[in-house]
Amino acid sequence: MTGAPTVIVLRCENCHLRFVPRPGRCPKCGSGSLAPHAILAQATVLAATELAVPPPDWPAPHRLALLEAEEGLRLLVVVRGELPRIGETVRVESTDRGFVAIGRGEGDAPAAGADRPPFEPPR
Ligand SMILES: [Zn+2]
């Protein structure tokens, strides 16, 4: 993966679980032996949704996606931009608040989402 953008996850040296970086020990086996592990910064969308009425302190619209990244690693992330479609490949970015998926229309400050048709689930 020369030159391809990557993001860093943690890999447990004991049970080989890979997970989004967070303080503490391995959530599976409790080992403290964790090492940074680079994966490609892209993933396939397994599911995506938009909360019509997010909790008061959350940004609105609030879009979430379940992604499958390299090596089958699954990530639940906030979506920036348009809601991606299932099966679509999105870019993943690491931020100080966790990973985000970059959907279409990235960079546009999302308005209230009123100009966009509602999410249509696949048939
Ligand atoms: Zn472990």
Would you give an account of this structure?
Strand 5 and strand 6 form a beta hairpin. About 10% of the residues have low confidence. The chain is mainly β and 123 residues long. The protein is built from no helices and eight strands. It has a single domain, classed as OB fold (Dihydrolipoamide Acetyltransferase, E2P) (Beta Barrel), CATH 2.40.50. It has a five-stranded mixed barrel. It has a three-stranded antiparallel β-sheet with strand order 2-1-3, with no helix packed on it. The radius of gyration is 16 Å and the shape is globular. Bound molecules: zinc ion. The site of zinc ion has 8 residues, from loops. Zinc ion binds next to loops.
Structure in a nutshell:
The protein has 123 residues and is mainly beta. It is 0% helix and 42% strand.
- CATH architecture term: Beta Barrel
- Under CATH at level 1, the class stands as Mainly Beta
- Could you tell me the CATH topology label: OB fold (Dihydrolipoamide Acetyltransferase, E2P)
The largest β sheet comes out as: 5 strands, mixed, barrel
Count of separate DSSP helical elements: 0
**What share of the residues lie within helices?**
under 10%
Q: Structural class of the helices, strands and pairings?
A: mainly beta
Bound chemical compounds:
zinc ion
**Distance N to C terminus:** 35 Å
Shape: globular
Radius of gyration: 16 Å
**Beta-strand percent range:** 35-45%
- Please trace the helix and strand order, writing H or E for each element: EEEEEEEE
Strand elements, count: 8
How many domains, in number, for the residues?
1
